[in-house]
From TrEMBL:
Gene3D superfamilies: Medium-chain alcohol dehydrogenases, catalytic domain, NAD(P)-binding Rossmann-like Domain. This is GroES-like protein. The lineage of its organism: Eukaryota, Fungi, Dikarya, Ascomycota, Pezizomycotina. One of its GO terms (molecular function) is oxidoreductase activity, acting on NAD(P)H. Residues 8-339 form the Enoyl reductase (ER) domain.
Length: 393
């Protein structure tokens, strides 16, 4: 089969013929039909952690072609069922295969069945970013989720997440939630999840966002329904948020960028006992903040795969609680995707696997927002804004 394979020496990925993967008893063999790109895919090709020869890439959607012997019948997987999920790709030291290939294998309980009404291209764009947002809102910040899982297990592994106030149904009456980078793919799911929390808990939540003005109309509409928006390009965006929220009354914040001074400035908008989550770690060096009263909660989405992950100079421990959360979340997505949670816009890129590095990776740069400098005249090479890049395989 054809696969995009890392060349760590030249810091690129090449299309090669490799052997077909063989599924373990608890896995599905999948024929990949579409993939979507995440900033971490080019990041770890340009700054490799893995050795040459690893299949790269995370998000996929496709068809089940074979079912492992120990996959329960009750899970309803059979040949031809449409599923979506993500793999870790070359984003770690650990030897694991990525998704940018014609076939792959994946544990049966870490995928979701694509409901009718959601296209395969849309489905390919969901799994990694939606789980990232779900982990932040429901698992790490511990807001009420619209499905059942065991929040206590998470707190046993991370007692520090319980510090500060847990703002709940009664107190305060209105909760203010601020999403910085509201037009990122992660942010688009986070806003929907905050809205679902309000519905599931009865809380009144006012949603504040920072995004470029060009995206305000979209963000004010359903399913995001932001109450207040500021432009991240305004130098005083954090002061504007504080003013809109009656001077420092943000209870929860999610920084979907975490570069430069965003973490520090978001902390300045938080009320006493307020909590924040972030998408990039302190160790990654994209942001610095010296005088934070509460450390923001960082987590890597990989934790949800339930395996130990060595990356970015530190190790993400194996977490049964995080894996359990992913399983519950994907089970819910098999029903809720398209109904309760809407897929975000997709840009279908021309070409297939052979164009991913040449076009898609150029658009995403080296992972950081400031590194996105592609200036090409083709219509599909315009900057990425509130959308996912999808390729057919
Ligand atoms: N921790 C994890 O496990 C994890 C998982 C997934 C992603 N991430 C990280 O999360 C970040 C977001 O990923 P993504 O895939 O959601 O990104 P994305 O959709 O590709 O982000 C593009 C959007 O970012 C907005 N943007 C660019 N610079 C900004 C700034 N300075 N302030 C506010 N918004 C800005 C742009 O808005 P405009 O077009 O309006 O200018 C654009 O809509 C990335 O750094 C990614 O590596 C982390």
């Amino acid at each position: 089969m054809r696969a995009l394979v890392l060349n760590a020496e030249t810091r690129t990925a090449e299309l090669q013929y490799v052997s077909l993967p063989v599924q373990a008893p608890n896995e599905l063999l999948v024929k990949v039909e579409a993939i979507s790109l995440n900033p971490i895919d080019p990041l770890y090709v340009l700054h490799p952690l893995a050795s040459s020869g690893r299949k790269i890439g995370s998000d996929f959607a496709g068809l089940v072609v074979d079912v492992g012997a120990s996959v329960p019948n009750s899970a309803h997987f059979k040949k031809g069922v449409r599923i979506a999920g993500f793999l870790q790709g070359a984003c770690s030291v650990n030897e694991r295969a990525g998704a940018f290939s014609e076939f792959l294998t994946v544990p049966w309980d870490l995928v979701w069945i694509i409901p009718n009404g959601v296209s395969t291209n849309e489905a390919a764009s969901v799994s990694l970013v939606a789980l990232t947002a779900a982990q932040a809102i429901w698992y790490r910040l511990q807001l009420k989720a619209p499905f059942h899982y065991e929040p206590k297990l998470a707190l046993e592994e991370h007692p520090e997440w319980n510090q500060g106030n847990a703002f709940n149904e009664q107190d305060p009456k209105v909760v203010n939630f601020f999403i910085y980078g509201a037009s990122t793919s992660v942010g688009l799911y986070a806003a929907q999840m905050v809205r679902l929390t309000a519905k599931a808990s009865g809380m009144t939540i006012r949603l504040f966002g920072a995004a470029s003005k060009a995206r305000w109309e979209m963000l004010r509409a359903q399913p995001y329904a932001y109450d207040y928006l500021v432009d991240y390009r305004d130098t005083n965006w954090s002061e504007q948020v504080k003013k809109l929220a009656d001077d420092s009354e943000i209870h929860y914040a999610y920084d979907c960028i975490a570069e430069g001074d965003t973490v520090q400035r978001i902390a300045s908008t938080l009320t006493r006992g307020g909590k924040s989550a972030i998408v990039r770690s302190r160790e990654g060096g994209t942001w610095k903040a010296d005088d934070l009263s509460v450390e923001p909660i960082y987590g890597a989405v990989w934790e949800g795969l339930g395996e130990e992950v060595q990356y970015q100079g530190f190790t993400v421990k194996q977490s049964p609680a995080a894996r359990g959360f992913s399983v519950a979340f994907y089970e819910w997505l098999s029903v809720a995707m398209g109904l309760e949670l809407k897929p975000t816009p997709v840009r279908l890129m021309p070409g297939g696997l052979e164009k991913v590095v040449e076009d898609g990776f150029q658009l995403l740069g080296a992972g950081g927002m400031k590194d996105r400098k592609a200036k090409r005249p083709e219509e599909w090479m315009r900057p990425v804004s509130a959308e996912k890049l999808v390729y057919r395989v």
